[in-house]
TrEMBL record:
Species assigned in the record: Moorella mulderi DSM 14980
Name this polypeptide is given: Chemotaxis protein CheA
Name of the coding gene: cheA_2
Enzyme Commission number(s): 2.7.13.3
Keyword Oxidoreductase: no
Pfam family, one: P2
Signal peptide: none
InterPro entries hit by this protein: Bact_Chemotaxis_CheA, CheA-like_P2_sf, CheA_P2-bd, CheY-binding_CheA, HPT_dom_sf, Sig_transdc_His_kin_Hpt_dom
Gene3D superfamilies tied to this protein: Histidine kinase CheA-like, P2 response regulator-binding domain, HPT domain
């Protein structure tokens, strides 16, 4: 007896779509096994649809597969908008399959093109570079308070900077080593950016042991390189969900003062994120906009 390939495909597709619905409920848990399972279903649907000549189903599944692969590689964070997009994609797939069952030739649901376009560009909107998203080589922001009653503050600050150089790559400090050596400043506080395979607990343990240190704060540094505020807000929320405290580091020419920028800065401050820039002009602008809630 001849095998009805289309009927076999439709039966399997319904099973896969039912599984997708269950897996989508677990998306916010950000479990790698859930993402892998959704990826496999999209991959299976793509291949099966291509075999029976359903180009729209195959093409749409391929777009889903591409986004899911980027999530698996850690290139795209699982944010609220990404979860919503995948849920909508599941609805589009079900509508496409229903159209095939009803014998509607070349049927696509009204939202098909919109969701296809969003799938295609989702990686661009929520992409986090490996430099940002590489926990094995992170940048940590350290703020250290010094005892104002101590006459050894400058010497202590210099020793701490040298110690930070021993345990990582010192990328920036205020005051700098030269300013401390030349006696240009006697700081009440200091900040530093350290890069490397470092745990924040190790920095706390290292610095709090020094005399004259009154307080220490360590945060995960996120470099802001473009005015894609949605991307950075979603990325920051993902980091917060992992228990990380955040400081946003704005590179020169990133800030363009408009409604979107002000809204982003306000939201970041409401989340308790610190704002920072090594660039003096950007630093002064942040000072003025946020009433000196920068570091």
């Amino acid at each position: 007896m001849a095998i009805d390939l289309m009927r076999e495909f439709l039966n399997e597709a319904h099973e896969q779509l039912d599984m997708l619905e269950q897996l989508f409920l677990k998306l916010e848990e950000k479990d790698a096994r859930t993402i892998d399972a959704i990826f496999r279903i999209a991959h299976t649907l793509k291949g099966s649809a291509a075999c029976v000549g359903l180009k729209d189903v195959a093409g749409f599944s391929h777009k889903m597969e591409t986004l899911l692969d980027s999530i698996r590689k850690g290139e795209v964070v699982i944010s609220e908008s990404v979860c919503n997009l995948l849920l909508q994609s599941g609805d589009v797939l079900r509508a496409l399959i229903h159209g095939v069952e009803e014998g509607l030739e070349n049927y696509v649901p009204p939202e098909y093109n919109t969701i296809m376009n969003e799938l295609e560009h989702a990686s661009e909107r929520t992409f986090i570079s490996k430099e940002d998203n590489n926990d094995a080589c992170m940048k940590l922001f350290v703020r250290i308070g010094l005892d104002r009653a101590s006459e050894m503050r400058a010497a202590r600050a210099f020793v701490i900077l040298k110690r930070l150089e021993d345990i990582g790559r010192l990328k920036f400090s205020r005051p700098s080593e030269n300013e401390l050596l030349n006696g240009q400043v006697v700081p009440d506080a200091m900040i530093a950016v350290v890069e490397g395979d470092i745990e924040d607990e190790a920095l706390y343990e290292c610095i709090t042991g020094y005399p004259d240190v009154t307080d220490v704060e360590v945060r995960y540094m996120v470099e802001v390189r473009e005015s894609n505020w949605v991307k950075y807000m979603e990325y920051g929320r993902v980091l917060e969900s992992k228990g990380k405290r955040i400081v946003l580091d704005f590179i020169p020419s990133t800030l363009k003062i408009d409604g979107g920028t002000l809204s982003f800065l306000g939201e970041a401050l409401r989340h308790g994120w610190l704002l920072h820039s090594n660039d003096d002009l950007t630093f002064r602008v942040l000072n003025r906009i946020t009433l000196k809630q920068v570091v």
